[in-house]
UniProtKB/TrEMBL annotation, chain A:
PROSITE patterns to which the protein is assigned, alphabetical: COMPLEX1_49K
Protein name: Unannotated protein
Any GO molecular function: NAD binding
Keyword Translocase: yes
Organism of derivation: freshwater metagenome
Similarity comment: Belongs to the complex I 49 kDa subunit family.
Pfam families recorded: Complex1_49kDa (PF00346)
This protein's UniProt keywords: NAD, Translocase, Transport
Coiled coil start-end: none
Domain NADH-quinone oxidoreductase subunit D: 144-314, 315-389
Keyword Transport recorded: yes
From TrEMBL, chain B:
Subcellular localization: Membrane
PANTHER family xrefs: NADH DEHYDROGENASE SUBUNIT 1, NADH-UBIQUINONE OXIDOREDUCTASE CHAIN 1
Protein name per Swiss-Prot or TrEMBL: Unannotated protein
One Gene Ontology cellular component annotation held by this UniProt entry: membrane
Amino acid sequence: MTITDRQQLAYIAGQAADARLNLELETEGMVLNIGPQHPATHGTLRVIVRLDGEQVVAAEPVMGYMHRGYEKLTEVRTYPQVTTLINRIDWLGSFANEVPFILAAEKLMEVEAPPRAQWIRTILFELSRIANITLFLGDMAAQLGALTPVFYAFRDREYILNQIEAVTGGRFHPNFDRIGGLKDDLPKGWGEETKGALRKLSEFCDIMENLVLGNEIFAARTRGIGVIPADVAQAYGLSGANLRASGVDFDLRRDNPVGLVYDKVDWKVWTHPDGDSFARYWVRLQETREAIAIVEKLLDGIPAGPVMAKVPRIIKVPAGEAWVETENPLGAMGYYIVSKGDLTPFRVKIRSASFNNVAVAPWVLRGVYVPDVITILASLYFILGDIDR
Amino acid sequence: MILGVELAYWQVTILKIVLGMTAVLLPAGTLVYAYLFKAVSFMQSRLGPMEAGPYGSMQLLAEVGKFLQKEDIVPTKADRLLFKLAPYVVLVSTFLLVLVVPFSVDDTFLNLDTGIYFAMAVSSVSVIGILMAGWASANKYSLMGGIRAAGQLIAYELPMILAIVGVVIQAGTLNMNGIVSAQWHGEIFGWGGIGNPYILTQFVGFFIFLIAVQAELTQTPFDMPIAESELVAGYLTEYSGLRFLLFFIGEFATMGIFSLIASVLFLGGWTIPWFFDFDSNAYNVIGPLVMMGKMMIVAFLVVWARFSFPRFREDQLQRLAWKFLIPISLINIAATAVLKVVF
């Protein structure tokens, strides 16, 4: 069955449900407006849900309440200024937003960062992934009503943010990546400190596995709920852990490691065949552990050398077009830069992961109960800035 | 005649009103500060309130002051009378519930022969208040919360009552003081050292009772009606200021009173073994203290579960009540009845 068939069937089923309601019981469905001001949408996502009792007949996400016009704003900023701006797209894993843009600009300028800069970039990239997903691991439980894990998540994320701050000077918005390398080298003794922080995060993962994943109520609320089959996931352009939880073995870190050194260490891409909310949580938990292992291995092998290649003081990117995509904490994120040889980009197209991840919501939310709407949206894990840009 | 002093009827009435207020508000305040503010904070690796008074001990006053200052908002489309009345109906249920709780032989508000039956009956009154709140708010979230609450509270009344039936069979009385007396005078295989607190024989009933209490109080594994991450705040969504405070007091006072009832039914009530005789007058003074201590123990279990578990879905919650708790409690009743005849 193709997607169009599925969608059509869904539409027909929705219409039929409405008609049946009106004729047999002389009742009508209720339209419930979840958001934009709602505790579960952590930001301003609005989901219009048509209900039959507590069952969802149709759901429609409404995006754009937080649209900040980044694609347009980049056109009036020089290339070094753009990184300050695009830090704010996925605000929980800021450094990861800078990398694909810088890589695309480097591709146009035909410069390559020195090996040391590439290693440090990869380490910071993975640290921002850990910082980002840590919060998901706690927040998902909070959405299900368990308030305690989210406090552990905030507590332990701080260890990683401290390490990011020690290098870049910024907890949330490092603005550290430069065309041709990095702003600074690592501070002395940073590697050992980071390993200590990673051990803390490793403990945190174990706690979450026992406290959340091992909980019977959590399993009852998430197993078999919000199942996204592999073909649907691919058709809607899902990426990141959401795609891998549907059993698709796709990870840009392994499949297309542009400018980052993932191919230098051994690691594993985790997938789960189920495609339900539980699988999405499980995959993210395993990925956090894997990221911890990657950083530990990378820390041992940082090559010596400069962290900045030779680039002109005033950066003018030659005319041309470039597309670079990386595996960000939320999924595949890419920048398409069109340059006319000026100080500023002519046009930048941002492909952010959450926009596509939320696009599957109408498909997956059909027929579930209202409480499941929350767990499914939480397990899809979107950041509002990443949806609306 | 109270503590040997002859009092007029009106004096007794005033005394009972004051003590009744104390019996409702003191457990509520203690539980909120000691558990909701502090114990939970330590579980969540934070400090909790620290600024108002030493270790935040005056935080409760600050919170009450805050709620009293807030504007009393009634939504335009709300059913004004029902909306304003609902918190009082919930609170009435709480105050009626405390009437039958014995704090010692003499420290009772009402020594009814059908005490526990009365308690179960009046605890259902709060459902009406919650339905009123949910319906009158003119808010879809409130309506869903109210209806969920009604379904849940009715579903969990039954296991609660069935859990109590085991105790009643064993004690042979519905009177609360009679149940305490039966536990004190009971024997464990002929050894009467600590009496026979029914948690030993009715442990199944105790756990079912605790689960049902958790559901009656809409605490977390069963907090579908409130469900702050999906229904905003359920039937409380539109309430502010004093009326919200009344709901809040109602919730925690009921938690305290249900814990008191649990300690009467299962933990030997206001008695402590070895120190005093059952008829000792000392219990008139230390009985309330013993009850407070036992209440704190039971309430801690409730709060502990509340902050450790995620919540059930509505259908899972109903399934748990009808398919597991009720059959288990029926088996418990049958076993109790058989064993009562055997021994």
